[in-house]
Amino acid sequence: MKLGVYGLGRFGAFWASRLADFTDVVAYSRTPKSGIDSRIELVSEDKLVDCDAVVLCVAISAMEDVVRRLAGRLKPGALVMDTCSVKVYPVSVMKRLLPESIQILGTHPMFGPDSGRNGITGLPLVYSPVRTDASADSFFRDLFNSMRLQLVEMSPDEHDKSAAYTQGITHFLGRVLQDLHLEPSPMATLGYSKLLEIIEQTCNDPEQLFLDLQRYNPHTHEMRESLKSSLDRFMTKLKEVPGLPA
Ligand SMILES: O=C(O)C(=O)C[C@]1(C(=O)O)C=C[C@@H](O)C=C1
């Protein structure tokens, strides 16, 4: 199966390289940069649509435009796989815009260039087959198993519900902590050092990812409200402690 990666931004370049360890990969980038893995052949968009499977590595907010560009040009039977950090929205875009003859696979690799810097063995990849035939499904399960990833199969909605309280809350708190301008300190405790690591881990990603996670996951609004209520509960509780300023 010939894989074509669409988008060679920070994540796309990393993912194309990891895939190239196991299979042939070509890639298309609107703005090609230097430093791309030499095993990956750069192709035009017209050439990319000839692939058996197209792996979309684009911002969540760019999904609709990109899927529209590809929809009428893919080979019947080809598969489109997204890698977005939310699942309900991109899957609904693919179902709405891609013809019935095109297969659809939702995925979310739960890692990236920072967390996968020292290898991706054992890291989770959320797998949501939406419209796949047995042979494509088994190709991708085998591929991800060969990459020694931990496949976590769930529906797009199950993914978004859980992700709001795992990745969504982490990125939200990372941005809040960054806003407080916390600095490294010679008296840093282990816990404090981990807080600084969270800032580094989340704020290294483009702000667009943060905004898209909060906007396109239907469950992150509830997460933010729960977080605010929890902060308020602790503020109120402390007001009741004798001797603390109101
Ligand atoms: O390792 C990185 O570079 C990441 O930021 C990966 C990270 C994250 O840790 O939140 C970011 C986006 C992906 O959806 C999955 C994981």
List the helices and strands and how they pair.
Elements: E1 3-6, H1 10-20, E2 25-28, E3 41-42, H2 45-48, E4 53-56, H3 63-71, E5 79-82, H4 88-97, E6 103-109, E7 124-131, H5 134-146, E8 150-153, H6 156-179, H7 190-203, H8 207-216, H9 220-239
Parallel strand pairs: 1-2, 1-4, 2-3, 4-5, 5-6, 7-8
Antiparallel strand pairs: 6-7
Prephenic acid binds next to loops.
Note the total helix count. Answer: 9
Instruction: State the CATH topology of the largest domain.
Output: Rossmann fold
CATH architectural label of the largest domain: 3-Layer(aba) Sandwich
Count of the domains:
2
Q: Order of SSEs, N→C? A: EHEEHEHEHEEHEHHHH
Provide the β-strand percentage band: 15-25%
Structural class: alpha/beta
Please report the total strand number as a whole number: 8
- Average of pLDDT: 97
In the CATH scheme, the class of the largest domain would be Alpha Beta
Instruction: Give the proportion of residues in helices.
Output: 40-55%
Q: How would a crystallographer describe the biggest sheet?
A: 8 strands, mixed
- With strands numbered from the N-terminus, the spatial order across the biggest sheet is 3-2-1-4-5-6-7-8
Question: What would CATH call the homologous superfamily of the largest domain?
Answer: NAD(P)-binding Rossmann-like Domain
Ions, cofactors and other bound molecules: prephenic acid
Question: Roughly how many Å is the radius of gyration?
Answer: 20 Å
Low-confidence stretches: none
* Shape, principal axes of CA atoms: elongated
End-to-end Cα distance, whole Å, is 66 Å
